[in-house]
Amino acid sequence: MQSTAHDFKHNVDEALANPNLQDSLGKLKVGFSERRRQAVERLPEFEALRDRARDIKDHTLENLDFYLEEFERKVLALGGHVHWAPTAEDARRIIADLCKSVGARTIAKSKSMVSEEIGLNDHLEALGIAPIETDLGEYIIQLRHEPPSHIIAPAVHLTKDQVADTFLEHHRALGFTKRLTERNDLVAEARHVLRQKFLDADVGLTGANFLVAETGSSMLVTNEGNADLSNTLPKMHIVLASIEKVIPTLEDAAVLLRVLARSATGQESSTYTTLNTGAKRAGDLDGPSDYHVVILDNGRSSVLGTKMQDMLRCIRCGACMNHCPVYGAIGGHAYGWVYPGPIGAVLTPQLIGVEEAGNLPNASTFCGRCESVCPVRIPLPALMRHWREREFERHLTPRAVRHGLALWSFVARRPLLYRRLTGLANRLLALFGRAAGRYRSLPLASGWTRFRDFPAPPPGGTFHAQWARRAGRTRR
Amino acid sequence: MLAGVSSPPRRRVALFVTCLVDLFRPSVGFAAVKLLEDAGCTVEVPTLQVCCGQPAYNSGDRASTKAIAAQVIEAFEGYAFVVAPSGSCAGMLSHHYPGLFDDDPAMKARAETLAGRTHELMAFLVDVLGVTRVAARYDGAVTFHDSCSGLRELGVKQQPRTLLGSVEGLTLREMTTPEVCCGFGGTFCVKYPEISNAMVGEKTADIAATGAATLLAGDLGCLMNMAGKLQREGHAVKARHVAEVLAGMGGQAAIGEGEA
């Protein structure tokens, strides 16, 4: 996917000026966090489960080579195939070759953020293979040629009316000429259109929430059941997943599933939880005859053993973005690439470079709400700060910020000079702001005063000046 | 001193004034001093304190942060308690300083000592000193914003509400989302002013919807941000630091309020 992360500020302006987006975000902010809160309240051991989930992922990451090879052994033993893709390009080529090997014309895709990460759809289309997104949200944005704006609710930026217009435009040729207004009718129409596409597909491609090393299974959760059609109807099933999706055992999966759905949608569990363990066997009624797992690295392994390793614990629930006031203000597209919100601010610089995505870890108040809800306790603000430190070290921090900071810290390290300068600033601000009590505009503070008044200090001097006077009086 | 009637020893507390209080709202510092003295503490203000270093820390400038942190550690050495009228600055000292010195065991030990002795004002009064009541009066309805660092790093939530509950004439009207960030974020509010504006705009709408005449919080940065937005939008809500109201200093001009 082509990144616009470098254009973050422009993206933000567009997002803030988009009334449909703002309308959708208003609902998202309340809905997701409230449902999570209720789900957590109903499960007294939730906090303990978060600890266990974190520990499972930490243990796996510390032994990642072992569990990945264990997973591969199990898949091979079941007659499946495992393909290692060091880069996005490798993954695209592997999947395209697999599709070509069965002469595929269309592939039914179940939601996969990794496929967005590697830009799979554009690549396949260029080769004359039509990828069909079958998750309802993904299907809607595919029709609109838009990227997802949320990792579990890809079309959350759209209103119902926008969806109705999109369906009318694209389904008219299929005989659906009525503009629908009811949610259920829209879903029914999409189901009808998609059903034939499932039947026509030569290859089914799904992501994976977990790869279970113990059994060689890929595990998927959905609320629509579309993954189950993607992986049973076509003759070839390709699972595309990144390296950190592997976990040791089914027991571990049970722990992670208990925190995943609650954190994501506030459900106790997702509607469908599907395990795929190899191809169709003798006696199976349905299933693919070929089963392939493509495992992508794409820069992830380079954070193993570093301070940034914690980002690989992520189980893609979306809770961090659902609770992020910055995401809530600007939505997912403004982040400019596949993964938005706090986890995107941490992952994106790793995956496409901090030069491209340098704004993302800076656009946070460090309010910490993301970390407080993360089911695997990723210290997201600390990781964002690490990126800021790397940017500063590499002189990627904007020049004005660097110079301002250098001046400020020069003064802050000289308390007597600092006292004199703050004393002067305090007197000036108090003097000129005395009547109104505040400033409507202030030189060097336009970022502030464009949107809010700046409070003037009351007369009388700084705290330290007043304290010194008081101490002087006391001594006398 | 007569045996048997000795009062408990007065606790010696160093006040970390915070740079914003020093420069923009000294009365918050004096309110903190009064609350601490009323609770039986002797308050000292180390003269070599400047800022906790967050502007550098959150901009990725680790070297400057360490230099400033070392200065703070030096200035506050030897006090049994260090108290700040700010969750953000107290959190910096107590949760972030030790990690700055992972490569310097001697400084790390000093940073950890400071961290263990540092408290946010409301938490110190209630959790450490056991204060449950103050002698203050403030007429009218107030709403309280939970500043992020105090809330999530230090667990400051109930303590200010407990103390406000003892203020005569005061009623608390909660916002729908008192725990959502106001959009200040230190340098964030000037680096990403449009996003910050959207966030504070939601906050002021929530504040206004309570109908409370006064907004209180425990961090001056958040208060200046919210007060400035409320005033720009023409709301009559007055913004004050919670310590000012608790110390009976709620009668003076509110934040950003001119001479009457």
Would you give an account of this structure?
The complex is a heterodimer of chains A (476) and B (260). In chain A, the strands form three sheets. In chain A, strands 1-10-7-4-2-3 form a six-stranded parallel sheet, with helices on both faces. In chain A, helix 3 (46-62) crosses helix 12 (250-264), helix 9 packs across helix 10 and helix 15 runs parallel beside helix 18. Among the domains of chain A are: 63-301, NagB/RpiA/CoA transferase-like (Rossmann fold), CATH 3.40.50.10420; 415-475, no CATH class. Chain A has 476 residues and is of the alpha/beta class. Chain A has helices at residues 8-16, 19-41, 46-62, 64-77, 88-101, 113-117, 120-126, 136-143, 160-171, 183-200, 226-232, 250-264, 319-322, 325-330, 341-352, 354-357, 369-373, 380-393, 399-412, 415-432, 446-449, 463-475, and strands at 81-85, 106-109, 130-133, 203-206, 210-212, 217-222, 236-242, 246-247, 272-276, 290-296, 438-439, 454-455. Chain B is α/β, with parallel strands linked by helices. Chain B has two domains: 11-126, Rossmann fold (3-Layer(aba) Sandwich), CATH 3.40.50; 132-246, Rossmann fold. Chain B is 48% helix and 15% strand. Chain B contains 13 helices and eight strands. Chain B has helices spanning 19-24, 26-38, 54-57, 62-75, 87-100, 105-117, 121-128, 148-154, 158-164, 188-191, 193-210, 220-232, 242-246; strands at residues 11-15, 41-44, 81-84, 118-120, 137-145, 168-172, 214-217, 238-241. In chain B, the strands form two sheets. Chain B has a four-stranded parallel sheet with strand order 2-1-3-4, with helices on both faces. Chain B is globular and about 50 Å long. At the A-B interface, helix 1, helix 14, helix 17, helix 18 and helix 19 of A face helix 1, helix 2, helix 3, helix 4 and helix 8 of B.
